[in-house]
């Protein structure tokens, strides 16, 4: 039995954001490696894996137009390079809880900006659901403490997180999840490599065992698999409903920490998980049927055979 677009998109969105949340501990294991050089290696490995998939599954995506190239460059610069650099810098000034609380507002921004950019009025119920999700994310992180610089950097990280999704929306109808994932990954390699030149020979070194394992997780699961899942979820649900699943990031980060032996989940983390779950359910129900019973603009759209993702 085939899943409905809402169920299929929801499963993909939840899986992608769970991988992102679980990557918190993995990223910590890779934190000691030079930032620019390490990210260049990550995206180079991911590009080597994604490009053959794009050639086979989405041959039409291999010829972006000039306008699409411009948007892909902007998407890679903001959603990949900007996000990773600002996140690391924010964590140097504030704790993960403080940064996560700010980035946890992503569902609310996407619920408002997604429809506005598409020329539609935001759904009140979806915005309310996104507010519940954002509140749950903040509760799960416990707000935390940080300085003013850390807060500004966290807000910048939030903007990059939202841009990673909203900038991709106009590209997905023609390039598809595979094409967009492949090209933004390829474009991130020279961007990080150019930044690594500043560090000279210190930009690269042979990784330790734990660093190599973290690099493989970030390149294969976090970049290849999660990108494909997330961009397909955006196609099926639209940015306002898919964005609700971004609230799972701080929750899964906290719960995965407990699984890895960092302690039993606190009451606030469990309460945050309940709030996020309630907000996601409310938001998905809000978009299940548009006025006149028509599916939302991103739901139920037929997908050409050459753009079916392999995920």
What does this structure look like?
The chain is mainly α and 311 residues long. 72% of the residues lie in helices and 0% in strands. The protein contains 12 helices and no strands. The protein has helices at 5-30, 35-57, 66-93, 96-103, 106-117, 124-141, 148-166, 172-196, 209-237, 239-242, 248-259, 267-286. The longest helix is centred in the C-terminal third of the chain and has 29 residues, at 209-237. The protein is globular. Residues 289-311 have low confidence and may be disordered.
Could you give a quick summary of the protein structure above?
Helices cover 72% and strands 0% of the residues. With 311 residues, it is an all-alpha fold. The model is unreliable at 289-311 (pLDDT under 50).
Structural class: mainly alpha
Question: How far is the N terminus from the C terminus?
Answer: 18 Å
Task: Characterize the biggest β-sheet.
Answer: none
- Gyration radius over CA: 19 Å
- Got a strand count? 0
Mean pLDDT: 81
Tell me, briefly, the overall form: globular
- Which stretches are poorly predicted, pLDDT < 50 over at least 5 residues? 289-311
Helix content: over 70%
What share of the residues does DSSP label as strand, in percent?
Answer: under 5%
The H/E string reads HHHHHHHHHHHH
How many helices? The count is 12
């Amino acid at each position: 039995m085939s899943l409905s677009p809402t169920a299929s998109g929801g499963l993909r969105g939840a899986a992608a954001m769970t991988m992102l949340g679980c990557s918190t501990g993995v990223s910590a294991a890779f934190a000691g490696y030079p930032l620019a050089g390490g990210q260049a290696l990550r995206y180079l490995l991911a590009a080597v894996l994604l490009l053959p998939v794009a050639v086979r599954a989405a041959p039409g995506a291999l010829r972006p137009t000039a306008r699409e190239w411009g948007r892909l460059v902007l998407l890679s610069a903001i959603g990949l390079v900007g996000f990773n650099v600002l996140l690391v810098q924010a964590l140097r000034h504030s704790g993960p809880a403080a940064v996560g609380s700010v980035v946890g507002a992503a569902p609310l921004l996407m619920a408002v900006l997604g429809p506005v950019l598409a020329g539609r009025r935001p759904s009140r119920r979806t915005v309310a659901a996104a507010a519940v999700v954002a509140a749950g994310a903040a509760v799960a992180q416990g707000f935390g403490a940080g300085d003013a610089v850390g807060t500004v950097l966290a807000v910048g990280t939030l903007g990059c997180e939202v841009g990673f999704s909203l900038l991709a929306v106009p590209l997905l109808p023609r390039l598809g999840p595979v094409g967009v994932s492949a090209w933004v990954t390829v474009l991130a390699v020279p961007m990080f490599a150019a930044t690594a030149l500043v560090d000279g020979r210190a930009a690269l070194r042979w990784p330790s065992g734990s660093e190599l394992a973290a690099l493989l997780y970030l390149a294969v699961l976090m970049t290849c698999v999660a990108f494909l899942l997330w961009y397909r979820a955006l196609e099926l649900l639209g940015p306002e409903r898919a964005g609700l699943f971004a609230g799972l990031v701080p929750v899964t980060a906290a719960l995965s920490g407990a699984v890895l032996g960092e302690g039993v989940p606190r009451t606030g983390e469990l309460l945050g998980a309940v709030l996020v779950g309630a907000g996601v359910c409310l938001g998905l129900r809000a978009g299940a049927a548009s006025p006149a019973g028509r599916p939302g603009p991103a739901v139920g759209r037929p997908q050409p055979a050459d753009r079916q993702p392999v995920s």
